[in-house]
Structures are given as structure tokens and as C-alpha cells.
Design brief:
single chain; alpha/beta; seven-stranded parallel beta sheet; about 30% helix
Length: about 900
């Protein structure tokens, strides 16, 4: 949430940037422009001597291209025209969508908002709220939990802060001065710190009646006691709730007893396994609040999403009203789809290679910075963000060394002081360009930006519009450019703009009843307060009907013990001395993070999630940190330490792995002609076996190095389909083509699934086998890369016909002859993208889809059988490969999270 958004969002007639609350055109709005030159040239000369833009190459640019005054706002059409002015660039823009400005609608604050709060808002320059702000405040005052799902910079912060500040004033009149409290939960530390600054500014006229404070892992020990005893608005994150506040609830008793509001900001980020964990943390919070006599109202803020009320109910476990009619104004948005050109290089098996999105974004960021256009470039990975910043800095140094210092990287894994310094430089305007991961997507105030670059589709339309909405936040127009990566989904999207601009955003997928998620939270809840039958049945039930069945399993493993017999007074107690909250990592990291330490100095550079350590900090991996390059010397998995040393290699590294799958339980099965489409539980064994060295900028493969790392085993959920010999004959797929056909179809299907489920390609994995040991048929699996599943495979099963039809379309529309990264090659294939048969995959999918007459969700055939029991809470899965996994066919494929 943009915490300073009230400063200008409510100016009458002000036009604001937005994340596309209505991404499709409104009645009377233009439907976009055709491919080709994106916009008409602006009036008057654009560059030096009336040229249309900077000369080719950063080394030849001159200061004359930079506008006088440095960082004056540049209109989005002008900025886009400058980027496309070079002769070889215009053809890279496949589509430009123009979203016209939109006016705003005002309303009056509901009567329950304290006059002092109204006066403080007016002192901030806001005479009246937008209609959706007033509507959310009215629900809150009526004691109704509510979610506001409107565009970026639409003023959601003020919508929930008005009732929160009013409650704080009410509570300040109590005998203890803290008769009402509020808890604000943000997905990141940076967002909570940013919100604190804005709350202090807005509440300054209210004096000491409002006492906000951040409580997170960076809070000093001496400050924590003051926060517990005196703060009436505590800003934290789900991790601190899980590990600090809830386990130590007795020290928070006075705060929890008075808790009136719980604000959950950026709640659209709570999806998949992380969202399921947060849903259980919220239920534990509600349980403890009830213990102290409180029943807080939940106020949620979300980017535009489908069915936000239902998603909020899954997250909180209680009914939630929804506010979705965005009444705030918006400035003009120019949104370009950009496809990098093919290079003269050749990749695996001679496939053509496109210029990388990383290199393209670095060049565009350079040009925009030289032109004084304040820009943020969103990059998919931490390493990618560092690389974009580093390349841009090098190119800017050739123009003006001072400009090079005004571009930086921002990502997770930085130390607290580094994050704070970058946030301050961004807010002050000292930084002109930033290469960031999604850590910056989540509402940190970056008002004043002119442009956003997206290095690859971010995985969901909700995230796409959220990132695009980071520009244009000062009542001005905005430019957004989606630069396609060389993969099937990005290639499909830049040539099918209707998939982005004519479809609604996705609903949020989470599964709080996932036993792998639920089991450790039951243990944590029992440690906080013994579990009773009331927690599972009747009107006070919090954990769902299936939760009670897990209790005997947890008792058998020595984690819980039932005391009090079988009567109504019986309760389940935590039995161990260690902290129950340490059984699970709610971020899904799968264990303690790996410390990245500089060899020789012992300096801690940052951390890497345990689940990602095999693929990102293996021996020989290139690690980037704030523009400096390191190479991993050793990875110690016992001590969770990766030792790195400074180096300057001309390449990056990409890990490769092999995967096998065994079927544990088939839960749903439908016929597609002779084929079968299935959903159920599987066991996946993954082994990182090597890494590739790719040349910087070009992406050319320089070589492959073997690795010696232990395999990992995962029990999860999958969707899979089988085909028969008759179907292979009908598709004219010979036996020597079968492996390549299945493998190519699997890669393309994985690449396309994020268009239909709120997942990322790295959240899912796949395996294709010409003859699988369990199905005894040619089989393609796509599985969730999280213990117990994350809901992505189940969603894929439900939309399988549309998903695989789009997969077929993506393969058919690719210009290559035999397969390339834009259609059937995968960047993380452990088999070196061999074998692959593009033509055979196309014929096979055509035959498969011919039998897909109805959606599986409409004709489910449920195969009896329980969901697999969860493994021990904590790092998931059995210690060794099971006999079933050992017997499974070893097929080609790509692993999740690689």
C-alpha cells in the first residue's frame, strides 16, 4: 500500500497512476493500438538538435539528452517515443495499450469518524474522501470485517486508518490510556517501516493519543518492552506474529485484550503455501484474542483481485464484506509490450536465442535515466536485479559518473541498514533508477516515478498491474513496459495482448486445510493454549473439520498429548521443551536460511532460503550483492553457510536438476477420449546435478559443470495426463519421437500454467515419462513445488482444457522450426532440453484436446481414498526415497523452485 497516497490522491480532479483496477477498457475507452510504432511523436524536438532520441549506444550519449532541471516529469507518450526512436527498436513493441485518465468521486466521512481525525486528514490537504474510502470506514465502524480491493494509489491506507485512528482516540480516554489498540500486519519489514513514517505524519495533530510503533526482527530489545506496554498501534509482519507475539502472548495480554482492529495490508500476496500459513497464524491470533475477551474487526487491503471477499474469508476464517468500486482518479497510462530481438547466437540443440530481458531492461533503464525519467525496473530474481543495476551503472558511467551513482538494486536478503538506506534515497529523489525484486512491489512509497519496466511477466495479472501502478503516483501519467523473457508464457502474452488487457485479474489461491501447513500450527496453538473440542466444533471452531483428525497423528509422533480423559474437559497439550513455532517456516523456506559469508573477512552479506540454496549458492555459483560479484567457494549444508569470494567472471550460472515422480493416491480422474486426466498426491524426488555458465548480456552457454549434492524428496499434489498407443498412432507420434513430444508438451504446459493459476513457473515442476511405472502409460506430470501442495495443480486440473489449449497455441505460434526457449525449451531442464520434438508435441496435444469435451470440474470422478498424512512439521518429506519413488520411471522434466 502506498502509505503517502493520501497526500495527493484526494485532490479534486487529480489524475493518478493505477495498477489497472479495470484492466479491460471501459465503455467508450480505446481498445489499444495495433503493433508497430507505438505512439505519435510529441510536439517539438525531443533530443539534441531536434533528434528523436539519444544516439545509439550509451558511450555516444551526451548530457544534452538529459532534460534541463534533471528530473522533471516526462509524459508517458514522450518517454515511450524516445525509447522506440532507434530504428531497430520500433519493431520490438508488439502492442501498446492506452488507458485514458479517469475522474474521481467524493463522499463524506461516516459520522463515527472522530472530528479530530477528520481535521488531521484535512490538514494533510484532503478535504473529502473518495467514495470507496468512506464505504470501507463505514463497514469498520459497524463492526464488519471488510476488504478494499482497488487500484494502486487509490487511497486504501486512509480508508482503514481513519477508523483505526478514531479508535485510538477513543481508547486514549480510558483510565489506562489504552482502551483500544490496533495491529497492522504487512508482508515485509520495509512496508511496515514505510507505513509507520506516514502514520506519524498523518497523526501528528492528534498528539500522544496515537502511539504507533514497529515490532519486528529489527526492533531493538530495549524498545520491545515499551511497544508491548504502551503502543496502541503496532506494525509487524506475519513472521513476527508467528514466532514472537503469539508464543509470548501473556506479555501482550493488555494489548490483545483491547484489540479492536487488525489491518492486513497487501493481502493479495498471501497465496499458495505462504498464504495458507498466514491463514493459520490469523486463526491462532483470533483464538488468543478470544481468550482475553477481544473480537477484533479485520480490515484488509488488496490489489484488484477476483472474488476478494471469498479470498479474505479463506484468509481470516470469518465473513468479510468487499469494497471494489475504485472511486479514485487515474492519470493516463501507456502500457507497451516489448519483445527483445533474436541474436546471432545459438543455444542448446542449435535453437535461436533472443536477447535476454535482463539485458534489454538494463539498456532501457539506462536510456530512461539519461533522459531524467525516474524509473523502477522489476526483475524476477535477486540476481537479476543486481545484474540490471550493475549493467545500467556501467553504461551510465560512460555518460556521466554522477548518473551511475543514482541507480541501485533493491531486493530481499539485504541487511536491515542497507534496506533503510536505499528506501531513504528513493524517497528523497537521490536515486533516479532502481532495479528491484517484488520486495518493492508491496507498497513502499515511491511517489514521483514516471516509468516502470517489467523484466518478464511477474506471474499473475494482479502483480502485473500492481507493479505497473508504481509509476504515476503524483497525479501524473505513467509509462509501463513489459519486456518479454525468452519463454513460452511471455512470448504468448506479448503476441496475445487480450490475455492481459481483456481478462479479469485472478482470484487468490490458498488452502488453509493443507495438512502439511495445518499440523505444525496445531502444535503451535497447543503450546500457546491447550486445544479443546471447542476449537474444532460448533460456532467457536477455528481450524476446520479435518483438523481434529490430525491430533492423534501428532500424538503418535510425540508432539501432543491428550489430558483429561475423553470428557468435555479434555485438552491437547504441547509436550516438548523446544518452541512449537519453530516447527515450520511460514515463508516455505524449508529450514534455516543459509548465511552468505565473505571468505577471508567473515562479513555476512545476506541470506538465501534453504529451499533455494541448492540452486543459487551451490559451489561455483555466481552471487551478486549490491553490484559486486562473488563466486561461491563452498556450500556447507550442515552449518547452513555458503562461503563466497570476490570475482569478476564474464558469466552467470543456472542450476540444473533431475526429477522422478511416484503416484501415492489418485483423487480425481476424468476421461478425455482414451486419455485420462488425473489429480492426486505424489512423491517427487529432485536432485540438482549440474550448473550452466551463461555469458553476460548474450545468454550464450559457455559450459556445464557437474555438482555433488544430495537429492531431496517432496510429498505434494499433482495433475497428470496419460495417452494410449491408439492416440499416439492417431497423432502420428512414433516411439522414437514419444520422449521428445511428451517432454516438449510438459515444458510448454508448465510455462503456460501461471496464466491460469496464481503461481509462478518456479512454484511448479514437471516430469514426462514414456512409460511410467504407476500408470503403465506415457504420462506427463505437473506438480506443486511445496509440501502437501499449494492449490496450483488442483487449479490446473479444473481448467485443464483451456490451459492445454493455450499451451498448444503457444507452441503453434512460435516462429522457430524445432523448438526454442520461447515455446518448448526450459531454462531449468535437468536433461539439457533433450529430447524435444516440437512438431510431435503439437500433434500430440491436438489429439489429446480432441477428447476434452468438458471441464474436469464439471464431471469429476472422485476416487476414494484419504489425503496422504502429513510428514513431521518442519522440513517436509521423508528422509529417504520411498520404494514407490525408487520404482517410478525416471523421466525428463524440470523441478519446482529450481
Amino acid at each position: 500500500m502506498d502509505v503517502n497516497e493520501w497526500g495527493d490522491a484526494n485532490e479534486p480532479g487529480a489524475a493518478r497512476g493505477a495498477d489497472g483496477a479495470r484492466p479491460g477498457p471501459r465503455p467508450g475507452a480505446p481498445h489499444g493500438t495495433a503493433p508497430g510504432p507505438p505512439v505519435e511523436p510529441p510536439d517539438g524536438p525531443v533530443g539534441p538538435a531536434g533528434s528523436a532520441g539519444p544516439p545509439d549506444g550509451a558511450a555516444h550519449r551526451t548530457a544534452a539528452y538529459a532534460p534541463a532541471g534533471g528530473t522533471a516529469h516526462v509524459a508517458p507518450r514522450t518517454a515511450l517515443h524516445r525509447l522506440a526512436a532507434r530504428e531497430d527498436r520500433a519493431a520490438r513493441i508488439t502492442h501498446t495499450e492506452h488507458l485514458p485518465p479517469r475522474g474521481g468521486r467524493h463522499a463524506d466521512w461516516p459520522a463515527g469518524i472522530r472530528p479530530e481525525v477528520v481535521a488531521a486528514v484535512e490538514a494533510a490537504g484532503i478535504a473529502r474522501p473518495w467514495a470507496h474510502q468512506a464505504e470501507m470506514a463505514a463497514h469498520a465502524l459497524a463492526g464488519e470485517s471488510v476488504i478494499a480491493a482497488t487500484g494502486t494509489a487509490s487511497g486504501k491506507s486512509l480508508a482503514y486508518l481513519a477508523p483505526v485512528l478514531s479508535a485510538a482516540l477513543d481508547g486514549s480516554e480510558a483510565a489506562n490510556g489504552r482502551g483500544a489498540t490496533a495491529l497492522y500486519v504487512a508482508p515485509t519489514k520495509a512496508l511496515a517501516a514505510d507505513q509507520l513514517r506516514a502514520v506519524k505524519a498523518l497523526a501528528a495533530p492528534l498528539g500522544k493519543a496515537v502511539r504507533p510503533a514497529v515490532y519486528d526482527g529489527d526492533t531493538a530489545a530495549e524498545e520491545r518492552e515499551w511497544v508491548r506496554l504502551y503502543a496502541n498501534l503496532v506494525l509487524t509482519n506475519p513472521d513476527m506474529l508467528h514466532r514472537g507475539i503469539l508464543p509470548g502472548h501473556s506479555r501482550w495480554s493488555s494489548f490483545l485484550r483491547a484489540l479492536r482492529y487488525v489491518v492486513i495490508d497487501e493481502c493479495h500476496t498471501y497465496r499458495g503455501v505462504f498464504g495458507s500459513h498466514v491463514a493459520q497464524v490469523v486463526r491462532r491470533l483470533r483464538r488468543l484474542c478470544a481468550r482475553y475477551g477481544a473480537d477484533p474487526v479485520f480490515l484488509l487491503a488488496s490489489a484488484t483481485a477476483a472474488e476478494p471477499g471469498r479470498s479474505a474469508e479463506r484468509l481470516t476464517g470469518r465473513p468479510v464484506a468487499e469494497v471494489t468500486d475504485d472511486a479514485s482518479p487515474r492519470g493516463e497510462v501507456a502500457f507497451a509490450l516489448w519483445e527483445p530481438p533474436l541474436t546471432e547466437l545459438h543455444g542448446e540443440r542449435g535453437a535461436p536465442v533472443r536477447r535476454t530481458a535482463t539485458a534489454e531492461c538494463a539498456e532501457l533503464l539506462t536510456d530512461l535515466a539519461v533522459g531524467g525519467v525516474r524509473t523502477v525496473a522489476f526483475v524476477r530474481s535477486r540476481r537479476g536485479a543486481e545484474l540490471v543495476a550493475m549493467i545500467a551503472q556501467d553504461r551510465l558511467a560512460a555518460v556521466d559518473r554522477a548518473l551511475a551513482d543514482r541507480v541501485a538494486a533493491y531486493r530481499g536478503g539485504y541487511l536491515a541498514d542497507e534496506r533503510r538506506d536505499l528506501e531513504a534515497a528513493l524517497q528523497s529523489g537521490e536515486l533516479l533508477g532502481l532495479a528491484a525484486t517484488s520486495a518493492l512491489e508491496l507498497g513502499v512509497d515511491v511517489s514521483g516515478l514516471d516509468a516502470v519496466l517489467l523484466a518478464g511477466y511477474p506471474g499473475t495479472r494482479a502483480s502485473l498491474w500492481q507493479q505497473a501502478g508504481r509509476a504515476g503516483r503524483s497525479g501524473q501519467g505513467a509509462l509501463a513496459v513489459l519486456v518479454a523473457r525468452d519463454d513460452p508464457l511471455d512470448t504468448y502474452l506479448v503476441h496475445h495482448p487480450e490475455a492481459l488487457f481483456r481478462r479479469p485479474v485472478e482470484s487468490t489461491v490458498l488452502d488453509p486445510d493443507n495438512p502439511y501447513v495445518l499440523a505444525p500450527h496445531l502444535c503451535a496453538a497447543a503450546a500457546e493454549l491447550p486445544l479443546t473440542d471447542a476449537d474444532f466444533t460448533g460456532g467457536t471452531a477455528l481450524f476446520g473439520a479435518g483438523a481434529a483428525g490430525l491430533l492423534p497423528q501428532l500424538a503418535d509422533r510425540g508432539l501432543l498429548r491428550r489430558r483429561g480423559g475423553a470428557g468435555p474437559g479434555a485438552a491437547w497439550h504441547w509436550t516438548r521443551r523446544e518452541r512449537a513455532c519453530d516447527l515450520t517456516d511460514i515463508r516455505g523456506g524449508g529450514g534455516r536460511p543459509v548465511d552468505v559469508v565473505e571468505d577471508g573477512t567473515g562479513r555476512l552479506l545476506g541470506t538465501v532460503d534453504a529451499a533455494a540454496s541448492h540452486t543459487t549458492v551451490h559451489e561455483g555459483a555466481v552471487h551478486l550483492h549490491q553490484g559486486r560479484t562473488y563466486v561461491v567457494r563452498t556450500l556447507d549444508l550442515e552449518d547452513n553457510v555458503a562461503l563466497v569470494e570476490r570475482a569478476d567472471p564474464p558469466f552467470t550460472t543456472v542450476a540444473r536438476d533431475t526429477t522422478s515422480v511416484s503416484v501415492l493416491e489418485t483423487e480425481r480422474e476424468v476421461p478425455w477420449g482414451d486419455a485420462r486426466l488425473c489429480f492426486g498426491s505424489v512423491e517427487v524426488t529432485n536432485h540438482v546435478v549440474s550448473f550452466l555458465r551463461r555469458r553476460l548480456i548474450t545468454g550464450e552457454i559457455m559450459g556445464e559443470t557437474k555438482l555433488d549434492l544430495p537429492p531431496r524428496t517432496l510429498r505434494t499434489r499433482a495433475v497428470w495426463w496419460t495417452v494410449t498407443d491408439d492416440q499416439l498412432d492417431a497423432a502420428d507420434v512414433a516411439q522414437d519421437q514419444l520422449g521428445g513430444a511428451l517432454h516438449a508438451a510438459e515444458h510448454a504446459a508448465i510455462g503456460m500454467l501461471p496464466l491460469f493459476a496464481t503461481c509462478d513457473r518456479w512454484d511448479i515442476g514437471g516430469v514426462s515419462v514414456p512409460l511410467h511405472g504407476d500408470t503403465l502409460l506415457p504420462t506427463v506430470f505437473v506438480y506443486d513445488g511445496h509440501p502437501g501442495g499449494a492449490g496450483f495443480a488442483e487449479r490446473a486440473f479444473g481448467v485443464a482444457r483451456d490451459w492445454l489449449a493455450a499451451t498448444r497455441s503457444a507452441i503453434a505460434s512460435c516462429e522457430c522450426d524445432t523448438g526454442c526457449p520461447s515455446c518448448v525449451q526450459s531454462p531449468k531442464c535437468g536433461n539439457g532440453n533433450d529430447p524435444l520434438d516440437k512438431a510431435a508435441a503439437l500433434r500430440l496435444l491436438t489429439t489429446l484436446l480432441a477428447g476434452a469435451e468438458r471441464d474436469p470440474e464439471q464431471v469429476p470422478e472422485r476416487v476414494p481414498g484419504p489425503r496422504p498424512e502429513p510428514g513431521p512439521p518442519g522440513p517436509p518429506g521423508p528422509e529417504a526415497e520411498s520404494p514407490a519413488a525408487e520404482a517410478a520411471g525416471k523421466g525428463a522434466g524440470e523441478a519446482a523452485g529450481a
